[in-house]
Amino acid sequence: MIHYSCDRCKRVLDPQNDLRYTVRVEVQAVMDPMNDFDSDDDRDHLMEIEEILERVDDEQCESIGQDVYQKRRFDLCPECCRKFVQNPLGREVKTSLGFSQN
């Protein structure tokens, strides 16, 4: 039997009774094109990087480090999923004080 737990709060999730959410995150390095490139070089470096990243799913190429590409998957309980959707980047939420309009 497969056991699931929330990757945020560590609550055990029963696959028969509990609703479970899956969050998939894909992080990849992006290089902006340089303005002062050599006109003799006809290579499209951005296209080459894109092709390498597409092959990662097929081959799991070892030459691409985690600083260039990462693909992660997380299981969340309903409460943690709600919190994640409200604040996916985990930024601190500023509390507003309720001052009267006098």
Give an account of the 3D structure.
The protein is an alpha+beta fold and 102 residues long. It has a domain at 4-28 and 44-86. The chain is built from two helices and four strands; from the N terminus they run βββαβα. It has helices spanning 45-59, 78-86, and strands at 4-5, 12-13, 21-28, 69-76. The protein starts with a strand and ends in a 16-residue tail after the last helix.
The oligomerization state is single chain
Number of helices: 2
Shape: flat
The succession of helices and strands, N to C, reads EEEHEH
Q: Please give the largest β-sheet.
A: 2 strands, antiparallel
Report the strand count: 4
Question: Class by helix and strand content?
Answer: alpha+beta
Strand share of the residues? 15-25%
| Helix residue percentage | 10-25%
Average of per-residue pLDDT values: 82
Could you list the spans in which at least 5 consecutive residues all have pLDDT below 50?
A: none
| Strands side by side in the biggest sheet | 1-2
Distance from first to last alpha carbon: 62 Å
CA-atom Rg in angstroms: 22 Å
